[in-house]
UniProtKB/TrEMBL annotation, chains A, B:
Protein name: Uncharacterized protein
InterPro entries: GAF, GAF-like_dom_sf, HD/PDEase_dom, HD_domain, HD_GYP_dom
Pfam families in the record: GAF_2, HD_5
SMART domains: GAF (SM00065), HDc (SM00471)
Domain called HD: residue spans: 279-401
PROSITE patterns, per the entry: HD, HD_GYP
Superkingdom: Bacteria
Domain HD-GYP, first and last residues per copy: 257-452
SUPFAM superfamilies listed in its UniProt record: GAF domain-like (SSF55781), HD-domain/PDEase-like (SSF109604)
């Protein structure tokens, strides 16, 4: 509530002058008291005070004017001035709140739209909420459309133990999802819908993330201590939720398309490979080895994206090689091998049709070049070969050596690693081999194999 | 500027009471005039008025109190009340403006984030600007990153003649792009940077669309008549531009990824087809015929999307068929044909790996079913066959008949159309054939052939 101090009002230069002049005009003794009886102006012991006129702010008495009957004018004046002051402050407070809200809206628009990754957007929402509202626990949960369950996608506070939480649409959260209305629960223990969970919060706020009229998730804010979340807190959180919902939804659509894209080209590439039944899974493994090497070499996000696409599509040109040669189990003749070599050229021809994939042509076309210049199709040498191609060359060779082929069994890990080491500087870029060894030793390669996600794909 | 009426102030009940009481207390004749000399209170002819005290609002005199020396208190009181009133109004106006801005921000967030199509977002920006600001001409121009030119993507007013405008970064627009600062030019003819163009505007406003610190385009607003665009207009337009830039950029990224996706699967599908040199372009034609039929049948956007993807990938299963059979120029044996039929099953196996493409499996798998149940692989009948598959069946057959094949020449348009008609109800869905004929007659099929755009692809 807004407080108006009668004392401070009387200290204003103009008001002080006017009030003293009126007191002088009245001619009889007058004194002004605040609501607690303290004398603010005039001398209470000066004479007899027939009347006690209240100074009112709405229904509330904030002080008294003591004096004769005519001293009423002073009480009226002070009541009026206090009322106007209150109105001014109320409007001012509203303007300030609106100003804060606008600043917030611009700020979150700028931050949240900067990413098209749903997890990143959700994390930004959590960070923003933390800045705005007192809380020990903040999380963004989204409804998984396939399962209908709520999943935590970003969280702050209380350690990482609450990520990967999956919940049914029950209790308070279920209620907010179903009604689409935000809720403040300042005393959670007395709420009948409360379900005892690991999160030790006493007060919480739960706001729906809505796209048009569809609830896609929630922002949940909790305090360990019992505090009073206010309507103002709720308004700020709702403003954040409004923008966040749209941005998370767009990020999800983008992510879904990205996943579809990567899975599709990956599946098609694997299928092309499948004409050779011994190399199933080759594409995926080469992609994972390549990304591990790329991270080790400190490639940028954009380079890793190029690397991932090039690794997935590195053998796409084999689509143009006839079965009779591609699937041949015995040693190829010179002429047949010349035909096999053509897959690097075919790949270029295919990718040339796809504007946003032209950038990966060097990585794909040159993955059979050798560091010493004795490779194909162009006999490029050293740094003249795109780093993407130099990485794929190592990943491809390692996978070829460690899997069974039509004409021989797997060479085994030890032999394959030794071969890479032996050929570093001749067939392979020594830095790339070093990065591969480092990734191999830190077991990144193994963990990568389980990871089929499309992390680095982006449109160009 | 905010106006304070002394007359209206004196009419307020509380003020009127206080002023009259003070006048009574003064005991000598007093009257109050406004700045133009009109008497607002008291009687000017009543006696002698030694003093004339100004009622001041800042430096401005808004009236006079005429009376004795002590009447100064009344002038002071009215000055103070007028000042407080002015402050209240000023804060109120600010709050109202902020309120409008907030409403606008929520409104545009809701509208602009609802689409991930850059042209739709730009059109919404134009519509919003029209609602907000007086203008005869509004356009959104984006910088084409490949050409460095400004291109109109949405426009309102003065007919459609200004779409497809492409401009270099010169003149006023070039300036706004280079400085990143908005400009108001209320008299365009006197601006030295003005380049005479078809748009007959006299006053204009030009605001950059900025993503982080990068200018990606402009919003331009113009009036035929010379008017004064104000700082307030600029502020509204800038708020719109702020949100619009982020949304347009995200829509462009989405669109670019969509295009890459479609071009990639299309190119890969065509390449798979290319193992049979006689059918190059088959995939694209089947897609175009299918979409023409789908539009004719009034399919929803979501259905058209499914249709487009299914048409592009309808023969993807051929990847699993050996060259020896797929490329055979003579008639296939029974056993060989049984192998060819497997491509519908292979397609299902491939697409089953791609979560968001599972929805197109019925359209792909059943494009060789017949309306009378005599097709393959499952012998489905009538409406039991997905409408997508019934459409692709017609499109596929028409293209097969009108192109040269290894074992025969094209049958020609007339024969192909007659074949479709003859087999409507047996091999083909008669409604689909009817829709094809209608599309054929309205020449939609021909225009479609030039259109390689990815209009209906969306992630699932």
């Amino acid at each position: 509530m807004i407080h108006i101090s009668l004392k401070r009002l009387l200290l204003k230069k103009e008001v002080s002058f006017i009030v003293r002049e009126i007191m002088a005009l009245l001619g009889t003794p007058v004194f002004v008291q605040d609501s607690e009886g303290r004398v603010l102006l005039g001398n209470a012991g000066e004479g007899c005070f027939k009347n006690r006129h209240p100074i009112k702010l709405g229904e509330r008495v904030i002080g008294w004017v003591n004096g004769g009957e005519r001293a009423l004018v002073l009480a009226s004046l002070l009541s009026y001035l206090a009322t106007v002051e209150l109105e001014k402050k109320a409007i001012g407070r509203e303007a300030l709140e609106k100003y804060k809200e606008i600043t917030l809206l611009y700020d979150i628009t700028e931050k949240l739209t900067a990413s098209l990754n749903p997890k990143d957007v959700a994390q930004l929402v959590v960070d923003q909420a933390k800045r705005l509202i007192r809380a020990d626990y903040i999380s963004v949960m989204l409804i998984n459309e396939d399962t209908g369950m709520l999943e935590v996608v970003a969280v702050s506070g209380e350690g990482g133990c609450y990520t990967d939480v999956i919940e049914a649409l029950t209790g308070i959260k279920g209620n907010v999802v179903h009604t689409g209305k935000p809720e403040i629960i300042n005393d959670i223990l007395s709420d009948s819908r409360y379900v005892r969970k690991a999160i030790g919060v006493s007060s919480l706020m739960c706001v729906p993330l809505k796209v048009k009229d569809r609830v896609i998730g929630l922002i949940i804010i909790g305090s360990r201590e019992r505090i009073n979340y206010t309507a103002e807190d709720m308004k700020l959180l709702s403003a954040l939720a409004f923008q966040a919902a749209a941005d998370i939804e767009n990020a999800r659509l983008y992510d879904s398309l990205k996943e579809t894209f990567l899975t599709t080209i990956h599946t098609l590439a694997e299928t092309i490979e499948k004409r050779d039944p011994y190399t199933g899974g080759h594409t995926k493994r080469v992609m994972n080895y390549s990304l591990a090497i790329g991270s080790e070499l400190g490639l940028s996000e954009a380079e890793l994206e190029r690397l991932q696409l090039a690794a997935v599509l590195h053998d796409i040109g084999k689509i143009g090689i006839r079965d009779g040669i591609l699937l041949k189990k015995r040693k190829l003749s010179f002429k047949e091998f010349e035909e096999i070599k053509m897959h690097t050229i075919y790949a270029e021809q295919i990718l040339n049709h796809i504007k946003n994939l032209k950038k990966i042509i060097p990585g794909v076309k040159h993955h059979h070049e050798r560091f010493d210049g004795k490779g194909y199709p162009e006999g490029l040498q050293g740094d003249g070969i795109d780093v993407i191609a130099r990485i794929i060359a190592v990943a491809d060779a390692f996978d070829a050596m460690t899997t069974d082929r039509p004409y021989r069994k797997s060479l085994g890990l030890a032999v394959a690693l030794e071969e890479l080491r032996k050929n570093a500087g001749t067939q392979f870029d020594p830095d790339v081999v070093k990065a591969f060894m480092k990734a191999y030793e830190s077991e990144k390669l193994l963990s990568k194999e389980a990871d089929t996600d499309a992390k680095h794909i982006n449109s160009g």
